[in-house]
Specification:
globular, Rossmann fold, 2 domains, 352 residues
Length: 352
């Protein structure tokens, strides 16, 4: 059996490989295809055909290049994202076409994010062409593989009869390990888009705590910003291999994202013995005190934009630091069950 795998240009981008915590998923999907019994082809377009902007032009150039290079080969399946794979799907209509989706639909993202960007007087890119391409690829797909039930739900809004399988992401529990905590209570935030990731709500909660004399330090990873608060340490863009030794010194990770396909930093925090606080779609990877009444939580879920509850949970954990090691240990135990081997097997089974 033969498969055409279209991972997208990020697979060949060294900068993405070095900085993005999600890059390895591209390689794991290739391995899953091999596990499923396929001989896998990947075509690498010349870099000079790809625009530097992640726009419609880049998607179209990459998709066209892969389609043209593979057009004379017959494949049993073609696997790719709901973007860069749309032309290979068209060129290989005799094949089974399988899309993998990591993000909520563009329609869902527009609905959630447009009003938020307006509050900051920022221009929001509706990505009309991107929305049309992903919906077109979705329509061409014989099967969808989603990273989480929440993401699958947003895609089912497009077609409730579409066959959608789930292959949950994992975490490298050898790379991310528990460490000695800082003396001061420390929160870590990881995210490249502060608006989408809800950073402003975390900042307001931490500001309130510190203004009340409740000392909380905040480490920020993923974007550059100038903060006058002395209790904020902004590390900006950070090599992914450097992240484990940074976050395992922290007590909690807060990911108050407005929408997220899946936040790999949540699982990475859990493996590091760091207690996560997150909103609904990014909190599906852990057991928390809302979904499992009476069970020991491995994290805490908060509603989007709810600063008061965010403040209360952070304050509660700060005041009860003697109980944090037990919670942190439980987070680590849950993370250890969420392996990349399990993901590869689930993805292979979904492909079959």
């Amino acid at each position: 059996m033969r498969a055409l795998y279209v991972p997208g240009p990020s697979y060949y981008d060294q900068q993405v490989k070095d900085y993005a915590g999600w890059w390895n998923i591209l390689e794991y999907q290739r391995q899953a295809l091999e596990l499923a019994g396929y001989e896998v082809d990947m075509y690498v377009p010349e870099t000079d055909v790809l625009p530097s902007s992640p726009s419609f032009a880049k998607i179209a150039a990459y998709s066209m290049a892969v389609a043209m290079m593979s057009k004379d080969v017959a494949y049993d399946i073609v696997v790719g994202p709901c973007s860069y794979a749309y032309l290979p799907f068209l060129f290989h209509r005799e094949s089974k076409c399988i899309s993998y989706v990591w993000n909520n639909t563009q329609e869902y993202r527009n609905r959630v994010l447009e009003p938020e960007y307006k509050t900051f007087n920022w221009t929001y890119d509706h990505s009309i062409s991107g929305k049309q391409i992903e919906e077109f690829t979705y329509a061409l797909s014989d099967r969808i593989i989603a990273c989480s039930p929440f993401v699958a739900k947003t895609w089912q809004e497009l077609d409730v009869n579409k066959d959608i399988q789930i292959a949950p992401w994992g975490v490298d529990s050898n790379m991310f390990c528990s460490g000695k905590k800082d003396e001061r209570f420390t929160v870590v935030f990881i995210g490249g888009d502060p608006v989408r990731k809800g950073f402003g709500y975390l900042l307001e909660a931490c500001d309130r705590l510190n203004n009340e004399g409740k000392q909380v330090d905040l480490i920020v990873i993923g974007f550059n910003g100038n903060f006058p608060q002395e209790w904020i340490k902004n590390l900006g863009m950070t090599l992914h291999k450097s992240v484990p030794s940074i976050i395992n010194k922290c007590h909690i990770l807060v990911c108050p994202t407005l929408e997220d396909g899946i936040a790999c930093c949540v699982q990475e925090a859990m493996a590091s013995g760091v207690i996560p606080i997150s909103t609904e779609d990014a909190s599906e990877v852990f057991m928390h005190d809302i979904f499992l009444q009476g069970a020991k939580p491995a994290g805490f879920q908060v509603d989007v934009k709810n600063i008061d509850v965010l403040y209360q949970i952070i304050d509660r954990l700060r005041e009860n630091q003697d109980g944090l090691p037990e919670l942190a240990s439980h987070c680590r135990q849950v993370a250890e069950t969420q392996t990349w081997d399990n993901f590869i097997k689930a993805f292979a089974e979904a492909v079959k």
